[in-house]
Amino acid sequence: MSSPHKRQKLQDILREDPYIVHRVSGSVDLLVSLFRDQPGALPNGPTTLSTPFLVIIDGLDECRGNKDQSRILSDIHGLVDKHRLPLRFFITSRPESHIHETFEEPDMTRVTEKFSILGNFVARDDVVRYLRDEFRRIQDSKTHKDVLQSVPKPWPSDRAIEQIAKKSEGYFIYAATVIKYVDEEYFSCLDRLDQILGTSVAHDDPEDTPFAELDRLYTSVLSTCPKSQLPHLKRALAFIGTAPSVTAIEVFLKLRPRQLNLALRGLRSIIRVDDHLESFHASFLDFLFDPARAKDYHVDLEQCYTSSFQHIFSLLTKSMPVLQASGFHDRLGVNCPNMPQN
Fold first, then answer.
1. What is the mean pLDDT of residues 118-146?
2. Contact criterion met (CB below 8 Å) for 237 and 284
3. Given CB 3.0 to 4.6 Å as the disulfide criterion, which of 142, 161, 179, 336 pairs with 134?
4. Of residues 295, 300, 304, 249, the one with CA closest to residue 271
5. Rounded to whole angstroms, how far apart are CA atoms 273 and 253?
6. Confidence at residue 179, expressed as pLDDT on a 0 to 100 scale
7. The domain 216-299 is classified under which CATH number: 2.160.20, 2.115.10, 1.10.1200, 1.10.10?
């Protein structure tokens, strides 16, 4: 805590009530006690303090348990809206379903603002700067001196950096994974970068792949899906970034209305489910369509599309008599020679 006065007051509170942090509402009680006499903390009015204290919670989705994460947000809402403490909260998180739903509640929307880095050009520029700095560090390091001594600066090319930044979609986890892989001490950074860019053959060792760490993350997220939903999940993922709407995909897959949303509920941190399916990470699709990386979660596009179109054809065949009777096929100029004639 940056304020010496608050630090001392916190110590006094804990000395008087050492079990406060172990109670269910202990964190709220502690903060209320800490800021009760703070100028601007009004019981029935807005905070008047010109410079409120900033509380940063980085990675809310990594806290233990969905219920605990939702409770933290509820407690924060109470501190801001009910107790009117001179506090501002900056919260970062993946958009997990329960977190997204909590922020969508009317009471929360009234006191919060949301910002997404998806498709944000400032975030992408930050990734580009990070990549340039890290590749410059690698080129200047003693570890890779022998390999890179004849390579002209700057390395790599702007095109290579842009290619990696584009795949990152503004998220540092992809860029950091690339740097970590290229910077391995006992391997050629040139060969490893070529492997990242797809210009060389991958290694046979599954643990010695560029994105082993990223693959573990994607596998962990996918594993939250119930096994009973897995067949629907894999077939649905084949339609990410395609034209069909969520409603149409449910028809293709012979699902009940809203069943697709249920199957994808645990994947909100990597997939946007609105009118269409959209991946937050371009690298997620690379993972899904590679059987060596995705393993049990591999999506076979040909198999998924074939199964879906067979179902569509079956629906159309069953509907032909109705379409013929209505003259719909005539208005479309469709010739159906095999259709039974009246």
1. 87
2. no
3. 179
4. 249
5. 16
6. 92
7. 1.10.10
Domain boundary assignment for the chain? 4-109, 121-210, 216-299
Q: What is the mean pLDDT of residues 270-282?
A: 80
- Residue-wise pLDDT for 164-206, tens only, equals 988 887 778 888 889 988 998 888 999 999 988 875 545 555 5
pLDDT-derived band at 47, boundaries 50, 70, 90: very low
How far is CA 110 from each of CA 92, 101, 113, 325, rounded to the nearest angstrom?
18, 14, 8, 54
Amino acid identity for residue 286 in this structure: D
Query: Residue 92's CB: how many other CB atoms inside 10 A?
Result: 12
**94-101 long-range Cβ contacts below 8 angstroms, 24+ apart:** 94/61, 94/268, 94/269, 94/270, 95/268, 95/269, 96/61, 96/66, 96/69, 96/268, 96/269, 97/265, 97/266, 97/268, 98/66, 98/69, 98/70, 99/60, 99/61, 99/69, 99/70, 99/73, 100/268
> Quick check: 161 pLDDT over 90?
yes
For residues 288 and 202, which has the higher predicted lDDT (pLDDT)?
288
Helix 4-16 crosses helix 26-35 at what angle (to 10 degrees)?
Answer: 130
144 bridge partner residues: none
Residue 336: predicted pLDDT: 44
Under a CB-based contact definition with an 8 Å cutoff, are residues 133 and 174 in contact? no
Length of the chain: 342
**37 close to 76: Cβ distance less than 8 angstroms:** no
Compute CA distances 299 → 230, 242, 251, whole Å. 11, 15, 19
